[in-house]
Structure formats: structure tokens, C-alpha cells
């Protein structure tokens, strides 16, 4: 299920940490109602600019807390302009967090993400079903250890969801899923 | 013994000569402070906010300064720029200003897009209007592309928030003013002055035990680095860094004064030059940006 949150609420310019904190408080209610696998879409339609304090307070704190406080839920950015995307990227890079953007139906990662992690994310997104580390290892031709590291990192960033499952041989394992 | 040279009378009040005013007139040392602007024929936006910060700080110390100002052009500017209305409760002007003149000119507040009158910043809610006016003047008067104007507004927003966020001093607020100038030698340019009379950068950074700075110049230099702030929090410490990045990108100039330190950041080699100046609490910042070729 997807829930949309209108970030700008008719405002083109989003200034100050204070506004970021107020917006985050409003958003917390929507986030608390989400179930694992659900998506909160941050709709930035009409927003032309936000400052770093706003971005750090709203997006930064939200994304830093997401894997810990709301595991398995996704936050997705939509309707970014070239300028707001560039500023969001800078803010996320500074904070060492990543986020998912959906643009014209295409899903990408924003923030400081290693190209190998980006490829892994892309492989999970492109798959029709949740994948195991072994399956991804085959698809991307890397070692299981390297793949496990990438998947742990992406799960910790809150851009992949980790689901417990059982292998055909009866062993416990995890499957990884991006957006539904 | 070397005799101290007689102070040269001020002819203008800007972010440079403000240091001379503090050094020569020492308003904080006097029991009845007297600020003599009688020789001053020109006041910039930065000079204006720094002088306002002096008056606010003096009031906090229980002192009421007398400001002597005679030049008619300067008197008119002080009224138009909102200085007289804001400072009248805190200082006596000699000669006094006519209340009706102040009232009439105050009613025209916001009428010129080339001027942002002295504005008090005590919370985030006061910033959006000021930032929108800065964006407007950069785009419409200085031919800035909209995104470049946004870069500047972001930097001013961060600095403006710093003026009231990093302050344990009771009832301290930030002060901001802006003026667009047209000078034969420099062409059209904008100056934004921001000042507060709070803790200052060194005191603020000293609350973070991981940061060690020996003096105000070092503190300013340290605070200009990304992520350096009083908090061990990755979401803080962006303000000065982004101000300088923006100034570098748009060939502007930045001067940061705090305590007894001052750093002028040169845009040609992206380096700061530090000076020791007469002490003043708080932090005062001057940003100048030239017009883009239209």
C-alpha cells in the first residue's frame, strides 16, 4: 500500500529547521500507520527550493531513523526538480544516508551510494519476486560474502526489505525485496 | 612611551570601519556610551546591522547609548532602513528624529526592492519573507538565474537560523539588512549584513568537547568546515560552509566577525585571512555579491 504525503502543501520554498521539524511531526502519524512493505511517498510537487536545515531535519532525521523505528517500510521521493534533486543528494551525502526516488515510473537511489550497491539495488528492483543472496550472487557474478555485505548495507539504509524465509533444503535464510 | 595616534574620524560605516568605531569609541567600556557618527556620510547594510547589534547588546548590559548623527543623507537612510524605528527604544539620537518623519517613512517599509530594512530574526517564521525578497532582487535586479538566487537564499537562511539557534544569551535575536548598490567602479552589487549579539562562534564551539580552538580567528576558520558545530550531530554544521561555497560559486565576498576575530574570505584563491579586531560579542557576517552579466 502507498500513502502520499504532500511535503510542500502549496509552498514553493521550504525554509528552516523549524518547518522541517513541524513537517516531520505531521508525517510521523502517516508513517506509524504503515505496515511492513508499505510505502510512504514524499510528494515534492511544486517545491522549488529547500534549505539544508529543512532537508536535514525532515529528510535526514526521517531516513536515519527509518530502519530502526519503522523497519520494512519504504520512503520514496517523487516530483523532484533537477535543482531539488541536486540539493537533496548533497544533504543525503553529508548525512551518509540514501533514499529512493521514483521518476516517471523509474526507481533510483539518491545519496552517497557505491556503484556496486546501486547495481545490487537495481537487480532487486528489476526482479519480479524477493531474492536470496545466493540468487543475486549468480545474477551479478560476485562472491556470496560481498553480496551479503551489500545487502546488509542496503537493508540498514532502509532501501531494501529483508524477509525471513526457508530454503528448499529447510535452512533459514533471508529474501530481499525492494518496492512491491 | 609611544603616544597613541589620534583616531581618524569615521567618514563611512561599513563592515571594515565598524572595527575602527569599536576600537576608537569603545562603547562597551563607557558608562554612558556615545557613538559619534557626525563625520559619517555613508552607511552600508553591514555597518547598519552591526551598529544595531551594539545597541541591543548595550541595552542588555543596562546601558543606553547616545548616537550622534548629522549628515542628512545618512539620517534619511537610517530612517528608511528601519534603523531609527528599531533602535529608538534603546538609544537617544542627537539631534533627535521627528516622530512624524519616522512614522511616514516607516509606512513605506517594503516599498523598495533594493532595500531590506533592519529586520529582527527571533524564529524561523521571520525568515521566509526576507528570503523571498532576496530571491526577487537577485533575479529581477542582478540578473541571477533562479537557481543561483536559490543558492544565495539557502546560504542566508542557514546563517539567519544560526543567529537565534546558537544562543544561550537571553532574548538575543538576529538582525538582517540588505541593500543593492550601484557604483561606477564595481557596478551593481548587493550586500547582506547579518549580526547577532549572542555567544559568538568560539563560545558556541567550546560546548562541543571534541573541538579545540585557541582564539576567535581559529574558531571562525573551524566553523567554516562542513559538519563543525556545537553539536555532535551530522545534521548540523552546514551554515558557514555553504555560505562560503555559495560565495565562491558566485564570486562574492564574505567577512565573518566574532569576538575579537575577523576573517575575510577571498574568492580568488578560496582562502580566509584572519585579523584580530576590537572585541564584540556575537557573530557578524557580511556577504557581497555582484550582478551577473545580463
Describe this protein with a few key phrases:
heterodimer, A: 180 residues, alpha/beta, five-stranded mixed β-sheet, three-stranded antiparallel β-sheet, 6 helices, 10 strands, B: 294 residues, five-stranded antiparallel β-sheet, three-stranded parallel β-sheet, 36% helix, globular
Please give a structural write-up:
The complex is a heterodimer of chains A (180) and B (294). Chain A has 180 residues and is of the alpha/beta class. Helices cover 45% and strands 25% of the residues of chain A. Chain A contains 6 helices and 10 strands. Chain A has helices at residues 17-32, 52-69, 82-95, 115-126, 133-140, 144-156; strands spanning 2-6, 13-14, 39-43, 49-50, 74-78, 98-103, 106-111, 131-132, 161-166, 172-177. In chain A, a hairpin with a 5-residue loop joins strand 9 (161-166) and strand 10 (172-177). The mean pLDDT of chain A is 92. Chain B has 294 residues and is of the alpha/beta class. Chain B has a 5-stranded antiparallel beta sheet with strand order 6-7-8-10-9, sandwiched between helices. In chain B, helix 6 packs antiparallel against helix 7 and helix 7 runs antiparallel to helix 10 (239-249). The longest helix of chain B is centred in the middle third of the chain and has 20 residues, at 146-165. Chain B is globular. The mean pLDDT of chain B is 90. Classes of the chains: A alpha/beta (180), B alpha/beta (294). At the A-B interface, helix 1, helix 2 and helix 3 of A face helix 6 and helix 7 of B.
Can you summarize the main beta sheet of chain A?
5 strands, mixed
Name the assembly state: heterodimer
Low-confidence stretches of chain B: none
Instruction: Name the average pLDDT of chain A.
Output: 92
Per the principal axes of the C-alpha atoms, what is the gross shape of chain A?
Answer: elongated
Spatial sequence of strands, sheet with the most strands of chain B: 6-7-8-10-9
Note the run of SSEs of chain B as H and E: EHEEHEHHEHEHHEEHHHEE
Structural class of chain A: alpha/beta
Report, as a whole number of angstroms, the end-to-end distance of chain A.
Answer: 9 Å
The number of strands of chain B is 10
Shape of chain B: globular
Order of helices and strands of chain A: EEHEEHEHEEHEHHEE
Helical content of chain A stands at 40-55%
- What share of residues are in beta strands of chain A? 25-35%
* Structural class determined from secondary elements of chain B: alpha/beta
β-sheet strand percentage of chain B: 25-35%
What is the C-alpha radius of gyration of chain B, as a whole number of Å? 18 Å
Amino acid at each position: 500500500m502507498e500513502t502520499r504525503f504532500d511535503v510542500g502543501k502549496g509552498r514553493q520554498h521550504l525554509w528552516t529547521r523549524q518547518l522541517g521539524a513541524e513537517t516531520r511531526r505531521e508525517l510521523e502519524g502517516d508513517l506509524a500507520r504503515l505496515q511492513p512493505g508499505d510505502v510512504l511517498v514524499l510528494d515534492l510537487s511544486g517545491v522549488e527550493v529547500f534549505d539544508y536545515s529543512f532537508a536535514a531535519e525532515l529528510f535526514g532525521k526521517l531516513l536515519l531513523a527509518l530502519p530502526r523505528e519503522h523497519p520494512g517500510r519504504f520512503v520514496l521521493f517523487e516530483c523532484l526538480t533537477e535543482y531539488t534533486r541536486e540539493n537533496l543528494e548533497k544533504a543525503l551525502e553529508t548525512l551518509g544516508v540514501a533514499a529512493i526516488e521514483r521518476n516517471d515510473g523509474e526507481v533510483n537511489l539518491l545519496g552517497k551510494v557505491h556503484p556496486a550497491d546501486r547495481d545490487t539495488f537495481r537487480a532487486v528492483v528489476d526482479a519480479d519476486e524477493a531474492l536470496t543472496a545466493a540468487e543475486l550472487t549468480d545474477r551479478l557474478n560476485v562472491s556470496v560474502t560481498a553480496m551479503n555485505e551489500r545487502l546488509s548495507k542496503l537493508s540498514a539504509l532502509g532501501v531494501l526489505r529483508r524477509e525471513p524465509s526457508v530454503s528448499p533444503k529447510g535452512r533459514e535464510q533471508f529474501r530481499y525485496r525492494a518496492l512491491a | 612611551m609611544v603616544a597613541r595616534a589620534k583616531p581618524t574620524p569615521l567618514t563611512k560605516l561599513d563592515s571594515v570601519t565598524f572595527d575602527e568605531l569599536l576600537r576608537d569609541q569603545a562603547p562597551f567600556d563607557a558608562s554612558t556610551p556615545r557613538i559619534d557618527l557626525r563625520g559619517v556620510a555613508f552607511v552600508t547594510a553591514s555597518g547598519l546591522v552591526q551598529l544595531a547589534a551594539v545597541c541591543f547588546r548595550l541595552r542588555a548590559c543596562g546601558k543606553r547609548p547616545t548616537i550622534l548623527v548629522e549628515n542628512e543623507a545618512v539620517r534619511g537612510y537610517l530612517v528608511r532602513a528601519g534603523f531609527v524605528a528599531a533602535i529608538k527604544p534603546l538609544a537617544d539620537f542627537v539631534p533627535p528624529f521627528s516622530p512624524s518623519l519616522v512614522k511616514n517613512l516607516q509606512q513605506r517599509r517594503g516599498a523598495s526592492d533594493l532595500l531590506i530594512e533592519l529586520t529582527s530574526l527571533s524564529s524561523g517564521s521571520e525568515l521566509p519573507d526576507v528570503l523571498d525578497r532576496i530571491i526577487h532582487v537577485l533575479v529581477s535586479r542582478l540578473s541571477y538565474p533562479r537557481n543561483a538566487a536559490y543558492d544565495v537564499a539557502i546560504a542566508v537562511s542557514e546563517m539567519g537560523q544560526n543567529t537565534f539557534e546558537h544562543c544561550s544569551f537571553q532574548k538575543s535575536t538576529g538582525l538582517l539588512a540588505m541593500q543593492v548598490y550601484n557604483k561606477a567602479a564595481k557596478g551593481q552589487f548587493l550586500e547582506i549584513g547579518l549580526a547577532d549579539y549572542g555567544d559568538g562562534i568560539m563560545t558556541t564551539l567550546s560546548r562541543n568537547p571534541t573541538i579545540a580552538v585557541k582564539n576567535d580567528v581559529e574558531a571562525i576558520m573551524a566553523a567554516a568546515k562542513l559538519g563543525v558545530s556545537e553539536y555532535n550531530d551530522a545534521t548540523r554544521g552546514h551554515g558557514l560552509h555553504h555560505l562560503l561555497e555559495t560565495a565562491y560559486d558566485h564570486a562574492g565576498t564574505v567577512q565573518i566577525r566574532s569576538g575579537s576575530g575577523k576573517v575575510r574570505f577571498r574568492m580568488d584563491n578560496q582562502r580566509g585571512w584572519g585579523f584580530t579586531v576590537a572585541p564584540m560579542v556575537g557573530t557578524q557576517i557580511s556577504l557581497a555579491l555582484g550582478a551577473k552579466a545580463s
